[in-house]
Amino acid sequence: MAVTASMDRVNRFYYLLHLYREGTISAAEQDELFALITTRQHDNILKEQVEQDLKNGFNGPKANLPPHISQEIIRNILSAEKKTSEIIPIKKPFRIWRWVAAASVLIIGFTSYFLMNRNEKNTVARMAPVHSYTIRNVTDTTQLILLSDGSRVSLESNSTFYYPPEFSDTTRDVYLEGKAFFEVTHNPQKPFLVHSTHIVTKVLGTSFFIDTHTLAGNEEVSVRTGRVQVSENINTGMNRRLESVVIISPNQKAIYETEKRLFVTTLVEKPQPIVNEKNFRDSLAGTPLPGFNYDQEKLEHIFNQLENTYGVEIIPENPNLENCLFTGDLSGEDLFTKLKILCLATQSSYEINGTRILMKGRGCE
Amino acid sequence: MHYNEVIYEEYKLLSLLAEDSEYAFQLIYDRYRNRIYQTAVRYLKSPHSGQEVVQDVFLKLWFERKNLNPDRPIEAWLYTVARNNILNRLKKIANEWKALDQIGHLSATSICPASDKAETSEYNILLHKAIASLPEQQQKVFNLARNEKRTYIQIAEQLSISPLTVKTHISRALNHIRDFLHQNGIEFLPVLASLLIIFF
User: Fold this and answer.
1) Hey, which CATH number is domain A99-267, 2.60.120.1440, 3.40.50.150, 2.130.10.10, 2.50.20.10?
2) How far is CA A86 from each of CA A79, A80, A83, A91, rounded to the nearest angstrom?
3) Collapsing DSSP states into helix, strand and coil, what is residue A184?
4) Which residue, B90, B119, B146, sits at the end of a domain?
């Protein structure tokens, strides 16, 4: 009951904040929202929403900084230093990196599917420290959990999540049975580790998104952008084997085959254009992403563009294949459909070999 | 892969910045100023506050330019500083807002006892007088809120002031009206009570 009431309060806060952000909040609702803000109980939500809007932008009414004010600000800043440097020769040390580390948010999602027998369920429960919180999602909707470091977990149905009231000084360990998305606050001093029955997933890079895929019997992690390290969970009592660590990159996934106790890496079913800084900056600058509409274009260039867009490696078995020309519009198709069309046009074929795509065909002179 | 090129480009940009390059600073400023400004205005509902946030964030960047880690994305740094700045301002506004609310509630309860036999028309006349005696800006804000049922955000936009200033005007106007009616020997205020409902 207490949980329901607090969920209602959280939902109410989200709702009011949404109206406020959109500018459609009534006077009475704004009074209510601001009273809630002063309780400081929803600081995490507020923080996360501001961060999200900064990182992802938002739709709706927005104006740019007027040019004359923009210039005035630059002038103020550059002249401010000249004034202060005379007065304060030694700069006050800002402890800013601590905040940066705490705040840049990594987004990871994570799926682990495994045989749902009791022993294995207990394994994860046993791994979690004694005083861990246990969140069991028995509803049919995704449940949101906010962690003390600002990380956010979307726990799916029939899944259980264990996390400590406070993280240790060296790592952030959480435990999962089932399926969840993680948006992890980036902190290189304290790696974020997701423990599940057979594997441990460790956040390594700067910006993550892992897609969910299902495969009964095995545990599976797939990545949208950034990097994730997956290793065999040695706490399950089995002997550690060699080479049981894999690092996966955008549009790749690692499947842990429970029976064979080994990792297989391959490409996800539907590779997505990867989100990297260049794409992001181009979108900030208003540069449209390059299209896939070709007129007498060499396959060499098309392969390059696909490699850059999807972060995959395309290897023509025969270099002559790169000389072939293609005319047509591949925009709007997913990666593998694009490849099928290219193959049809050039009498070639492709196969996925691990995380690479192998192109086969006689090619063109 | 051009991902590495981007990393390298940013690395160069931050090295230049560390060597006091105003050009590098301007480049970074031009890339991020609008996103920061737009988000600040989204949460603070005031172009002026938005400008202050942008200035604070980039002033900090300029002062910190020699201490930045060139291996770390500058975007994350800027957005963290911006986020904290926006949150601090928003919390400050919320605290002041609540303080104004409490003054309003106190005055509302302190004038509510007494009889309930008052005649509405008499109050209406006095109320009009009370509103007419308000300072110009208070009167304008008060009427927009009461007669046209505008929200704080709408009034703020229309008059180019911050929502907190709107709230302050309304709060002061209510106090003034209460005092005015009180001086005219009226202790019970059904009209004012219904007025207060609009705001609280």
Assistant:
1) 2.60.120.1440
2) 12, 10, 6, 11
3) strand
4) B90
In chain B, positions 8-47, which contact chain A (CB-CB < 8 Å)? 10, 22, 25-26, 29, 31-39, 41-43, 45, 47
Nearest-Cα residue of chain A relative to residue B54 = A73
The DSSP secondary-structure symbol of A197 reads S
Identity at A357, one-letter amino acid code: I
Q: Residue A93 is encoded by which pair of tokens?
A: 């040390």
> Helices (DSSP H) in B45-135: which residue ranges?
47-63, 74-110, 120-132
Instruction: Please say whether the beta carbons of A150 and A129 come within 8 A.
Output: no
- Tell me which residue range forms the domain holding B154: 111-199
Q: Which residues of A touch B39 (CB under 8 A)?
A: 50, 53-54, 58
Interface check for A95 against chain B (CB to CB < 8 A): the answer is no
- In angstroms, rounded to a whole number, what is the distance separating the alpha carbons of residues A14 and A360? 53
- Tens of pLDDT, residue by residue over A61-99, are 788 888 888 888 888 888 765 544 333 332 223 333 333
Q: A277-360 has which fold?
A: Phage tail protein beta-alpha-beta fold (3.55.50)
- Which residues are B66's β-sheet partners? none
Closest in B55, B93, B101 to A73, CB measured: B55
As for the ipTM of the complex, it is 0.81
pLDDT digits (tens, 9 = 90+) for B78-126: 999 999 999 999 999 999 888 887 665 444 333 333 334 445 667 778 8
- β-pairing verdict for A159-163 and A152-155: unpaired
Nearest CA in chain B to A97: B77
Take residue B120 and report the two structure tokens written for it.
Answer: 């509405």
